[in-house]
Structure formats: structure tokens, C-alpha cells
């Protein structure tokens, strides 16, 4: 019997407590006021706390750049007042930059200057540029074809050139061999002149060798002149024969 009474008492007290809380909470929420300290001292203190929280040791501008924000909220030099700089800030940070978007559109003067520049820098129309490019490609193709023909012609003459080169080398070698034999013959003649073996460095040997070489050159020159005279005589005789046949 006592247990039942106690249970009913606890249940009734719990219900009354919940009812009291449900009726008093709205009153507390309505009467509760949030106090916000917006004084200059508080704002300065918050700024100081925020500054101390920044452990990067970066300047304000660099810190803003790292955090993808506009580096300077206020202009610090004349360059920050230019239209070019403000366009750049708007292009990079958008509306967050605080720049008026109308600055991004070129002025009438800038449009006229751009037109004047393009008229001087690019005086030709698109069709003219395309035609010039096509003509340049045709000239390049023609140059390549001519080069191919030239290479093919030279390749065809390669064997002939190799033969001419070999003949030239053989002729040069023959001339060197003939000069060597001539030198040896003169040396042998000088030795026979003295009748005994003489050192080629001896002054008498050198003098006699020079004399023999001079005589040999004289004989060769005379032989060339005689051959030339014979050739001229043969040409004259041939011409006389031709004239006699015509007459």
C-alpha cells in the first residue's frame, strides 16, 4: 500500500515539474537579452587578439595573399589607384575585391587607341593573311621539290664524281712519284759526277744538285717550247689544208 502511494507521488511531482519548466522557458527566452560590446576599446582588443593569433609572421598583405584575399584594403601607393590595378584585382578576387565592375569595360578612348593599334599592327584582312600563308606554303613546297630534284641529280652524278676524284688522286700520286724519282735521279747523277758517295748535307753536293736542277728545268722548258711550236705548226698546216680544200 505504501509503495503504490509513493509511486503516485513521484509521478505527480515529475509531471508538475515538467509543466513548470515548459511554462517558464519561453518567458526566460523572451526576457533574456544578449549584450554586445561594440565599443572602440573592444574592437581594438579584438584586433590585437587576432593579430597575436597570426603566428606566420607574414605582413598583412602577404597574409591576405596566402588566404586568397585582396592584399590591400586601402591604397598604399599611386599604382593602387590606377584602373589597370583595379581591373586586375576584380579579375582575380571578383566581387570580394570591392572594385566597381564598370571599370573593367574599356573607355571610348581606349577602344579608339586599340583600333588604331590594330590598324597599324595588323593592316591585312583575314582573307589576305590566309592567301599570304597559302602562297608561303606553295613557295616552301616548290623549294622542297627543287631541292629533291637537285639531290637526285647529284646522286646520279655521284659515280662520275667518284671516278673524277679517284683520277685526280691518282694523278696527284703519279706527280709526287715522278717528282720523287726525278729527285733521286738527280742525286744519283751528282754522286756519279763526284765518283764517290757524298753526304747530301755537304755544300758541294747541295751546290751541284742545285746546278743539275737548274739545267733540268731549262731542258724541260725548252722541251715545252718545242712541243708548243710543233703544235702551232700542226695547226697552221691543218688550216692550210682546209683552205686548199675549200678553194
Automatic annotation (TrEMBL):
Coiled coil: 162-231
Top-level taxonomic group: Eukaryota
Any Pfam family: CR6_interact
Keywords: Cell cycle, Coiled coil, Mitochondrion, Nucleus, Ribonucleoprotein, Ribosomal protein
Main location: mitochondrion
Database matches in InterPro entries: Ribosomal_mL64, Ribosomal_mL64_sf
GO annotations of cellular component type: mitochondrion; nucleus; ribonucleoprotein complex; ribosome
Subcellular location: Mitochondrion; Nucleus
Keyword S-adenosyl-L-methionine: no
Family classification: Belongs to the mitochondrion-specific ribosomal protein mL64 family.
Known role: Acts as a negative regulator of G1 to S cell cycle phase progression by inhibiting cyclin-dependent kinases. Inhibitory effects are additive with GADD45 proteins but also occur in the absence of GADD45 proteins. Acts as a repressor of the orphan nuclear receptor NR4A1 by inhibiting AB domain-mediated transcriptional activity. May be involved in the hormone-mediated regulation of NR4A1 transcriptional activity. May play a role in mitochondrial protein synthesis.
Cited PANTHER family: GROWTH ARREST AND DNA DAMAGE-INDUCIBLE PROTEINS-INTERACTING PROTEIN 1 GADD45GIP1, LARGE RIBOSOMAL SUBUNIT PROTEIN ML64
Protein name: Large ribosomal subunit protein mL64
Organism expressing this protein natively: Pararge aegeria aegeria
Chain's gene name: jg18247
Amino acid at each position: 500500500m505504501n509503495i503504490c502511494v509513493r509511486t503516485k507521488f513521484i509521478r505527480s511531482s515529475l509531471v508538475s515539474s515538467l509543466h513548470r519548466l515548459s511554462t517558464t522557458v519561453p518567458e526566460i527566452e523572451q526576457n533574456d537579452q544578449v549584450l554586445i560590446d561594440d565599443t572602440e576599446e573592444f574592437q581594438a582588443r579584438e584586433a590585437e587578439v587576432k593579430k597575436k593569433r597570426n603566428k606566420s609572421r607574414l605582413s598583412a598583405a602577404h597574409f591576405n595573399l596566402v588566404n586568397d584575399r585582396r592584399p590591400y584594403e586601402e591604397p598604399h601607393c599611386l599604382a593602387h589607384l590606377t584602373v589597370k590595378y583595379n581591373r586586375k584585382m576584380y579579375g582575380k578576387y571578383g566581387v570580394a575585391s570591392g572594385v566597381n565592375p564598370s571599370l573593367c569595360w574599356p573607355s571610348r578612348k581606349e577602344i579608339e587607341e586599340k583600333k588604331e593599334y590594330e590598324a597599324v599592327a595588323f593592316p591585312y584582312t583575314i582573307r589576305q593573311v590566309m592567301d599570304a600563308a597559302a602562297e608561303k606554303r606553295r613557295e616552301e613546297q616548290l623549294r622542297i621539290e627543287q631541292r629533291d630534284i637537285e639531290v637526285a641529280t647529284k646522286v646520279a652524278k655521284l659515280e662520275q664524281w667518284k671516278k673524277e676524284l679517284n683520277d685526280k688522286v691518282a694523278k696527284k700520286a703519279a706527280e709526287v712519284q715522278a717528282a720523287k724519282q726525278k729527285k733521286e735521279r738527280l742525286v744519283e747523277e751528282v754522286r756519279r759526277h763526284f765518283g764517290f758517295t757524298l753526304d747530301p748535307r755537304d755544300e758541294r753536293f747541295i751546290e751541284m744538285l742545285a746546278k743539275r736542277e737548274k739545267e733540268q728545268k731549262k731542258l724541260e722548258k725548252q722541251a715545252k717550247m718545242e712541243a708548243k711550236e710543233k703544235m702551232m705548226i700542226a695547226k697552221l698546216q691543218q688550216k692550210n689544208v682546209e683552205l686548199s680544200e675549200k678553194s
